[in-house]
Amino acid sequence: NPQVENARALVEIGAAVMVQESEADEKFAGELFNLVDDPSRLCRMREKIKGLSHEDAADVIAKSVLRIANE
């Protein structure tokens, strides 16, 4: 399942928390409150996810699409 693989990759670097769909009813709220109650953890997660971002991603994609369209 690509969605689970993507989530697992984020969890492994500390950028996310994953709750399996089959466990969502029992675990989601608890995980959410754990994050809300731990601002330093949220900050660390935010920094990890920012490290994966590419600020110019939209421009890169648009230029690639235009280049391919003009070939």
Order of helices and strands: HHHH
Class derived from helix and strand content: mainly alpha
The shape is elongated
Total of DSSP H or I helical runs spanning 4+ residues: 4
Low-confidence stretches: none
User: How many β strands by DSSP?
Assistant: 0
The biggest sheet, with number of strands, parallel, antiparallel or mixed sense and barrel status, is: none
The mean pLDDT is 94
- Rg to the nearest angstrom? 17 Å
**Percentage of residues assigned to helices:** 55-70%
What attributes does this structure have?
71 residues; 4 helices
Describe the structure.
Helix content is 69%, strand content 0%. The protein is mostly helical and 71 residues long. It is elongated and about 50 Å long.
Short précis:
By secondary structure, this protein is mostly helical.
Layout of SSEs?
Blueprint: H1 2-12, H2 24-36, H3 39-50, H4 57-69
